[in-house]
């Protein structure tokens, strides 16, 4: 850090430099896997990363305007001994190149970090659950990155203790997931790429009941007795949960639909279940 | 309709025809206003349109595969005396041209309709509310079309009686809103473009209390007494509700946040409030 508190401006001046290209490549899943790193964009997500997972931060870039608008980012970085580098907004935009334009990417708003993907094991996370009441969210083949990010954010807000994802779910470290989760990805333990077959028995071994939702379930969510340690399993946007998952769940409940809607968006369904769990505590 | 039940194939063969261009232009708000029409895409939304607002349908297009995959669309159209026209998938895609690519447009999945925008007056919709308990959702400057569609869908599912929007809110008839709402736009009355100043007094005149959410409110949602006739007001994604709206509301409640999340996505916040209202009924 310079003595003025402004970021180090050790210059990255070309949007075609190797460093910029390497960071832009993290838009893709294969590059994220190869390097074990991902990109975090925007002041809210980066602030949360610095507060909760500072040890994972490898690189931090800010524009002059970004540093001005979010001075706490530089303070947090300094506290953790992380050097922020000042770059132009052109460079910062080039670092997010390669994203699917359908992502509707906004600008990184002057702040961008590269961090290690900290993959914890399922056993480790289940062992670390609180010994009393516990709530877990399981995503099974949820494919829209915006939905996945919103689901992580809703799980965090409702006080869930972990978010787990089976192999067919959108990558939690994809840029759009990270953005939609607005920091919540760093607030609670996550495990991704879990083989669905073994998951339910591991949950039960940890004393956690498996709960599913279905429009055809007999129990109404608001009338059902919910186990104090439970995992809500949410399925694919179009197909919902497969019959095999529904049959294997300890309890399936129906979210009452009062209007003419045929179904609920997966993030809305999860929110109703997670906040009903929170309300009962 | 042909006697075989297959759609009329009165040919539209050029993606550059005036008809295709006119339908593609409905991606833009100004063309929608000028023509008083909008586009509905995909089997779920078109089915719901035909079931609930058939009289508004002006044109209906299906591909061969679309007709095969959703035969009920042709039956519904026939029942209402609407002629479906068969077009190629190239033509159907051309009809959705002009959309912002950031919309993440999927294909219209073989089915597309053009319908009249049926704008009802606020007074008309408020007069038509049930005389007993009633729930209204008000969107104030909610700007993301995907959020607006999800909000309309959540309102429908929770049994809300109307959705209202102030002038600064994303157009309910924009293609991405219509898609995200997956038919719910046709299930309940909507009024858009309302001047915010007069709205609250009109609601109160109809015996509907104005409820707002705020992270700083004293009342907890789950502990608060909620009026039986109420309008939940939800604000802009980044700025939330302005102070003036909070001050003018009859009741402001705090949604309890149990984790480290700083805030809730607007669709998540609305879902928690609307389903808590439903649960209490």
TrEMBL record, chains A, B:
UniProt name for this protein: RNA methyltransferase
Domain RNA 2-O ribose methyltransferase substrate binding: 39-121
Record has Transferase as a keyword: yes
Any one GO CC term of the record: cytoplasm
GO molecular function: RNA binding; RNA methyltransferase activity
PANTHER family membership: RRNA METHYLTRANSFERASE 3, RRNA METHYLTRANSFERASE 3, MITOCHONDRIAL
UniProtKB keywords: Methyltransferase, Transferase
Gene Ontology biological process terms from the UniProt entry: methylation; RNA processing
SUPFAM superfamilies per UniProt: alpha/beta knot, L30e-like
Highest taxon of source: Bacteria
Family membership: Belongs to the class IV-like SAM-binding methyltransferase superfamily. RNA methyltransferase TrmH family.
